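quick one before i forget lol
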Amino acid sequence: MIHSSRTWLLFPILAAALAFTPIAGATVPEDFLDALRPEHPRLMLTGPQLEALKARAESDPDLRRMWGQVRETADGLMGAEPLRHELKGPRLLHVSRACVGRIYPLALAWRWTGEARYAEAAVEILKTVCAFPDWNPSHFLDTAEMSHAVAIGYDWLYDFLDEETRAEIRSALIRLGLEEGLDAYNRERPPHWVTSAFNWNQVCHSGLLIGALAIAETDPAYAEAILPVAVENLPNALNSYNPDGVWTEGPAYWHYATRYTAYGLSALESALGSTFGLAETPGLATTAWFPLLTTGPTELYLNFADSGQNSRRGPMPTLFWLARTYDLPGVAALEHQLLEAETAQAIHLMWYTPRAASGTVELPLDRVFESTVPVAVTRSAWNDRRALFAGIKGGYNQVAHGHLDLGNFELDALGNRWARDLGSDNYNLPGYWDKKAGGKRWDYYRLNSLSHNVPLIGGAGQDPNGTAAIVGHGADHDGSHFIVDLTKAYTQAERVTRGLRLFGQRRAALVQDEFRLDDALPVTWGMTTDAVITIHGPHSASLEQNGETLRVDVLAPANATLVSESAERPDPEHNNRGVKRLHVEVPPASGTLTVAVCLRPVWPDEPEVPLPALEPLEAWGVAAEESAP
């Protein structure tokens, strides 16, 4: 059961700077292999840990149910189509991920039951991918994930494999994985992922170190060469969690990056008994709250960056690892709650964390996350799919996977998402990654400001180099608010500030933008929605979705006009079929300008929430007291 708390979870807000501090101890001693666990399995789930898990399953109904689901998954993989070396665009990644997704349940099922059919199926997969001509090192995520899968198969199935098969798998892991990694490390100009601050870092370094540890007793030179480089460079990405656990590439990439952080650190701990200080990175101990608190009552994330369309919170085994590592029983309880209706993965068992004795989890209604991409969320209640939820972001438009979306807001109510983010487009579109000013990336609708819930000034969107900070926040008996300074996001204005407020006992929302314009320029307030839009007049509209209604009222300016348009796009971009845009169009104006738009859900059997009095953002109040989960 989730309980609400009106206390704030917040920290001072960063302006937006990529400043990393080194992690003390992020090096390995020369004799680190002296601590190597000599027997297999040594990676993440050792033999004694598995025996303890099996014993616990006798008395733990959650664990017993999850094991049954994992076994069903393994059974369903029997006779699956063989994996093939087939690229999608420049990537083999879908094949590497399929290999990871098959090896874990099959190898765990063999270890748990001793039934040879599971091991035999896993070995066939390993032999297939080990016979590939390469693991596509030009897109090194593919190589890293395949190295991870093959290493787990080798380690977990070690006692089933004969020596000839072990040698075959070791040889392929070295030739197609570890040697390719060493080649990257040793180049005069190593590829970007070696020192990256983003997900490529964790995936590539963790995949390589897992591979090296799997064969460290027979081929120690690879561990001796790979681990020092990986441990030295992982902090470049791990520091991205500092100070408050936000992942700047968005919630979907949080899951990817943090999963591989957990794989890598868990493998170091199980094989060597140490993470060499990496687990103490500031922000890691609290990062589990980022995806949980930024999930709306519709189970959709507060979406930003290249997250998928309608990116939804699903099972995340990494939460068990974080809960176990950092003593977060509330995090484990929330994952257990989700798994009551979802299928567990093998990795849930590998990192299994039981429910706490108390099933109560106290969660805040409001949270500001400090980061290079600061994020703020507010809601009316937990445990209510129909609750009102809103979130807003600041940040830095040049962050990895970033869009021109500073100040973007999203809104849930009545079981629907009314204001939404479209998510990523096709990564293979020409120039998708060209992020410089005037770069092709910003021509694509889903990535530029035209599709986001942000202002447009003079018909133009945000500066690709723009930044924004959350500069105000507070709560009172009536609701909550956040204020974002967008001035550095727009070159067309002297000052731009956005406020997001819940009012009427948290039953309605107000989005208020204030501008100081030197030149007479038109301004557009925009919102993307799946709802059917009906315009009732220049200042009034209603949105209909799944039998529910959201009323939209323009409080200011008096000369504004509400209009709607399609968000659909031609090929080769994503077509956005059925998606609309609601615009507040303001004629050219100079000087000071306020655009204020109320979003009022029609709550059945409740009186209409009155429209609020219009007040300048500077009068919205001060921050409330600090608290923590």
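fyi The radius of gyration is 26 Å.
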